[in-house]
Amino acid sequence: MPEVNEATVAGSATVRMRGVTKRYGGVTALNDVDFAIEPGEAVCLAGENGSGKSTLIKILAGVEQPTSGEIMIGERVRSRLNPRVSAAAGVMVIFQDFSLFPNLTVAENIALPTMRGNRRKLFDRRRARVLARAALERIDIDIPLDARVESLPVAHKQLVAICRALASNARLIVMDEPTTALTEREVRSLLDIIRLLKSEGVAVLFVSHKLAEVLEVCEKVFVLRNGEKVAEGPATDFDAASLSRHMTGRDLPEAPPSAVDPTADVLLEVSGLHKEGAFRDVDFTLQSGEVLGISGLLGSGRTSLAKALFGLVKADGGSLALGGAPIPLGDPLSATRAGIGYVPEDRLTEGLFLTQSIVRNVAIGRLDEHVRGGFLDLDALVIEARDWLTRLKVKAPDIEAPVKSLSGGNQQRVALARWLSRAPRVLILNGPSVGVDVGSKADIHDIVRDLAQAGIGLIVISDDLPELLAICHRLLVMKNGRIVDEIVSGTVNEDELTHRLAS
Amino acid sequence: MTSLDSKNLHSEDSHAGNAALRESPSRGLPRKRFASLHLWKRNETLVAIVIVAFCVLATLSDPLFFSATTLTDLLRASIVLGILAVGAMLVLVSGGIDVSFTAIAVFAMYASTVLTLGVMPDLPWYLVFALSIGIGASLGAINGIFIAGFGLPTLIVTLGTLSVFRGFLLTIIGSERISALPPGMRDFSRMMIARGTTEAGSFYALPAAFVALGGTVVLTWFILHKTMLGRAIFAVGGSVESARRIGINVRATQFFVYVYVGALAGLAGIIYGALGRMADPFSLVGLELSVIAAVVLGGARLVGGYGTVTGTLLGVALIVLVQNSLIVVGIPSTWQSVAIGVLILLGTGLPAWQARRAAAKAA
Predict the structure, then answer these.
(1) How far is B211 from chain A (nearest CA, A)?
(2) Which residues neighbour A308 within 8 Å (Cβ) at sequence distance 6 or greater?
(3) Distance in Å from the first CA to the final CA of chain B
(4) Is the ipTM of this complex over 0.85?
């Protein structure tokens, strides 16, 4: 096939889209969009879920074909691409799931796409290692070449995905939300790598929800909303507020929480909770109507603690009491009955039944309440679930559609709806806005505030500091398994908080 | 240059919650220790240990067990099972499952026998073999069309074709046992690699068909590990979506797998007929679960992406030992299927349980 030589033909790798439109049936996902990225440039592609970002990326990757418009890579003008043409022209997309093979080694994952390109029939293990090592050295990283990718931490998987793109002579690397799964320090390293790539003339298209880091590394910002370009310009022209305004089309002032009534009842009492190797000496109380934040770096024990409160992890000792009544440790069912709800961080694997319908996902939490003489009162169940979906503003064309068809923000609302329908007294939210866009995030924060107003006690585990500052009354900082700091909201700003977390 | 420090990244591993507490940088683990840990966790090692233990036990209770006769008997018994297992392993690696291969094997064997007898009875054995392999590959291609072409679930397709192939064979081609095989096949069954009499006076013989198992093993190993096609099979088994995104032709890869497995089934079938000196249309079907058991014992995972030729052969060896020599260690043969079941539960359940416990501990 002739495309194989494309990479050598395309001298300057400017990638340009002109008047690109994409329709899926009656829905216009992208409408007459112009876009360009130069070699060595980093551009931030911003937009809420459903704004057309993913469609734009997929068109660049050649996975989707535009309905109309043209794409120029270097000198060649094309009306359509396919994955092989895109790859040969040096456009490499790192999808959110990294598209790696868990069962293959690091070397194979890095080298396989390149080795496929040269049409050899035989697989040369040594050549795979050489290619992989070269790519790893280019970004100065040391990962064992023979390790299976499934055994790597997320940050390393991402590096493998980046190296894979580099090994295939990438001229434009598209990163789809590269920082969602990373800790702050890993994000720093990633940004350094992006700077390095830029200095070598590789263009980087960065899709991210985390505005601060985007603005740090990108020269240009490109904002999509409802499939149309709404803003484009040098990154210096944008700040977090203006960017989110462009993305959502509305101002989103984050009101700080109103103070908790000091006379409110104490809901949850935790004392002396400890678990070998995870956390120890954990004491705190949670009042009715209070939003308590728990933060700390990954590995600080915050997630284990959150799970232990709900019984998913069995603590070795200590006590938990809700409204004075003790709750047995390590028993999620008792915790649920006592009125504790837990919305996990990883909705996809821990929280939702992805292939089941939206309404079933909500209703599953209420099966026991709707039993009439041994039979399930389906109508009542569905009516109630529907009501919660409306109250949480879940945007779903069809509540019988599977949950996996929803955006991240809406999935999170479904998870919330399920718990809220059980009227919990304490709700634990682990990473409530991970993988959720700016607009939905603000909505979720509003929901949290409303719940607190209604007298529910909330515990929010997050490493998104602006989020914690915006919704929490009080903040516990964990380090090496212990609570090392307690911060009353309003007394610190983001920089100070970052400092206290890291110290 | 970048300030990225691999050590830091490692200790930020979300699974390393407690490791971080103990300040143990996981990067410091020497590669060697990784390797040995790995070896102990592998099913292959476990199965090999069980095999050795079984042989030691058998030899202790009956010194005659340790002889050329036993060895050739076991090798002979592992030919058909082994060829089928290697094929089934390939399917598991690609992320599918095939239960129809026994039906393909018996169909190919019986149809090629009938065809040879009816058209040219004097066909040399290798052409009869080629015919059977060809029929097997064509039937495999039918699986391939449904699975790769229409994207249907592999278990459902092969359950369906298992029944269809078998029914078609019995109603249209024939349901009578044929013991007067074509002369070519009889010639083949008399070809031996080694034969003789042991000092104890018992006769032993290893048929030439064993070479077919050897060839299958070498060819499959070569495809899996030395060709891009092999990497593509592993890649598809690891993640179909990722494979598609890096431009692997997923359909062609799957199609190849089912055709290859069909061809191997055709080979195994005709060997079964030739060595048994009878074409029995009721044979072989029912064996598929033993075959899959052997493959799973050898470490292949039902979720796809994992499987080794070595592991498969060890699994086959263990199943053959249990099927043929259980009586030697004092367990009545009627307990055969119980023994195999227990081996599967322990041999594959134990590592899975260990992995789960390790994961729970880390979380």
Answers:
(1) 25
(2) A273, A275, A278, A279, A314, A315, A329, A330
(3) 35
(4) no
Distance of residue B2 Cα from the nearest chain A Cα, in angstroms: 5
Instruction: Confirm whether pTM is higher than 0.80.
Output: no
Q: Which fold has domain A2-90+170-248?
A: Rossmann fold (3.40.50)
Task: Note the pLDDT of residue B18.
Answer: 36
pLDDT of residue B3: 41
Mutate to test the interface with A, among B3, B33, B231 (most CBs of A within 10 A): B231
Contact status of B10 with chain A (Cβ, < 8 Å): yes
Subunit contact B4:A95, Cβ cutoff 8 A: no
Helix (H, G, I), strand (E, B) or coil at A19: strand
B28-37 residue pLDDT tens: 333 333 444 4
Cβ-nearest to A299 among B16, B239, B243? B16
The class that CATH gives domain A252-339+424-503 is alpha beta
Intervals of CATH 3.40.50.300 along chain A:
2-90+170-248, 252-339+424-503
Dihedral (Cα; A471, A474, A478, A482), 10-degree rounding: -150
**Sheet with A68-73, side-by-side order of all strands:** A27-37, A15-24, A68-73, A76-78
CB contacts of B227 in chain A (<8 Å) are 121-123
Residue B142 has a CB neighbour count (10 Å cut-off) of: 18
Interface of A with B in 156-215 (CB under 8 A): 156, 159, 183, 185-186, 188-189, 192-193, 195-196
